[in-house]
Amino acid sequence: MPANVPDDPIRPRGSGGRHTLGSSPESQEPVEHVDLPPLPALDASAPLEPLRTLYMAWWRDARERARQLDPGVRSLFVDVLDHVEAGWAYVAPLQAWCEAHRDDPRDGDDAHLLDFIADDVVDLFREIASGVAALVPGYPGWEAEADPAEVDGDLDTFRRYFTVLRYAVEGLPAPAELRDAVRTAAQGLAGWSTELAVLVTAIEEAVL
């Protein structure tokens, strides 16, 4: 990971009045530490990986926590993290395109489209990833932060946002490179959010 990639901690997720994952701190048994081989280095300079990446410290921490879980539930959490990364492989080129063209002269529809991708579609994907990372136990405050219902709500919104984006790039004179990236992402993400919701539900049912 390049040294110039900034840290990007998980934003606090309020817990008032929400159905959260887990039980009270008093009932949590200590997690036994298991020595596992170190994770391979992540290469954020790989082709199409944007500066504003998924692979921040909070994501790497969730990966490491998942590796330390009891084998009976470890695969549930590893699978859900893998699924988020599979989706990011299609979203990352959109963010990379925005970063590559952020200094281009633009106004009107072009400006709105670029801002919608970076500030709405990509931001929401990273918020979903943040919510999934928060599901992985092993950090202080997990009982309050882990919230499957919030992840489900964000997934519904992501589906709507991406539908709007698909129609936008087809209806506007969008650059061919961007239109192709959106088409590829739409094909790759078909069913992704539904499948992620199933994985989140499986975690909720297994851990509660």
Describe the structure in your own words.
This protein has a domain at 66-207. Residues 1-6, 9-34 and 42-46 have low confidence and may be disordered. The protein has 7 helices and no strands. Helix content is 61%, strand content 0%. It is mainly alpha-helical. Helix 2 (71-100) runs antiparallel to helix 6, helix 3 runs antiparallel to helix 5 and helix 5 packs antiparallel against helix 6 (176-188). The longest helix has 30 residues, at 71-100.
What is the CA-based Rg, rounded? Answer: 18 Å
Poorly predicted regions are 1-6, 9-34, 42-46
- Count of discrete alpha- or pi-helical segments spanning 4 or more residues: 7
- What's the β-strand tally? 0
The largest β sheet comes out as:
none
Strand and helix order: HHHHHHH
| DSSP strand content | under 5%
Helix content: 55-70%
Mean of residue pLDDT? 82
| Straight-line distance between termini | 35 Å
What is the structural class? mainly alpha
Could you say which overall geometry the principal axes of the C-alpha atoms support? elongated
